[in-house]
Amino acid sequence: MRAKLFDLFLALWTALFGLAVPLLWLAGSPKSLIRAATRLWVHGALFGLKHVVGLQHMEHGREHVPNMPCLIVANHQSTWETLASLLLFPDVAIVAKQELLAIPVFGWYLRRSPMIVINREAGPKALREMIQQSQAALSEGRSVLVFPEGTRRLPTDPVTFKRGAELLYAKLGVPVLTMALNSDHFWSHSDSCKRKGTIMVSYGEPIPAGLSGAEFTRRAERILEADKNRLIR
User: Fold this and answer.
1) What predicted TM-score, i.e. pTM, was given to this entire model?
2) Between 20 and 30 A from 89 (CA), which of 35, 66, 179, 197?
């Protein structure tokens, strides 16, 4: 019942931001204003999760977050981290799949924030565009967040990176922050039910730039796997 009430709340909250779309469009779709509106929408969504569902979150290792733009790699278990990351890292550029643009209202804001939207079926072209857009985001002082497993995974699945994360690391030349979480326990990727509890988010010590791609991948996978397993115990 609480999950259904939240879905109703989120639909009404999202509809309010839909009313703002024509005004933002007439104003020239300013990126800073759209990002601020997006963060406000996420604030409301997390408020609803906390007060309607009873779902909140807690961070560990926040002191490890670099004070400069970086590459953030996170395990992916549910929709929650896609939304919450917009508040955990203000102005972050998230590498997102093209299908998200089809979501009413949210897709409009996502495209114009802008996020790094890729067509996974485009192959090498998608990788080139991801790297170019990530470099552009870093030049604007924005961190880049990628889910290196490519899709949502079960908590019991081992952390295994796809090639894109290694290429980003090699081309961007910035430190990497790992972010492990256990959101699947409360917002499963296999259904739309949200459950009461506390999602744990854990940041690891930054991985420096300049390692070989293979060494970066081994180190990041190892850190995420260890932190993820610790959170799900």
Assistant:
1) 0.92
2) 197
Please say whether the beta carbons of 73 and 176 come within 8 A.
yes
Q: Strand order of the sheet with strand 176-181?
A: 55-60, 197-203, 176-181, 71-74, 144-146, 93-97, 116-118
Q: Tell me the pLDDT tens digit for each residue of 170-210.
A: 999 999 999 999 999 898 766 668 899 999 999 999 999 99
φ, ψ for residue 104, nearest 5 deg:
-55, 140
Unique residue bearing structure tokens 């300049």: 210
Task: List CB contacts of 232: < 8 A, sequence separation 6 or more.
Answer: 155, 182, 185
Instruction: Note whether 96 and 117 are within 8 A (CB).
Output: yes
For the stretch 18-32, pLDDT in tens is 999 999 999 999 999
In this structure, is the dihedral angle defined by the CA atoms of residues 145, 151, 157 and 160, taken in order, positive or negative? negative
Please state the rounded mean pLDDT for residues 78-102: 89
3-class DSSP string for 47-79: HHHHHHHCEEEEEECHHHCCCCCCEEEECCCCC
Homologous superfamily assigned to 55-232: Glycerol-3-phosphate (1)-acyltransferase (3.40.1130.10)
Distance of CA 114 to the CA centre of its chain: 13
The domain locations on the chain are: 55-232
Both tokens assigned to 200: 């744990």
* Site of tokens 């989120």: 10
* Long-range contacts, 224-227 (Cβ 8 Å, 24+): 224/73, 224/74, 224/75, 224/159, 224/178, 224/180, 225/158, 225/159, 227/178, 227/180, 227/202
pLDDT at residue 41 above 80?
yes
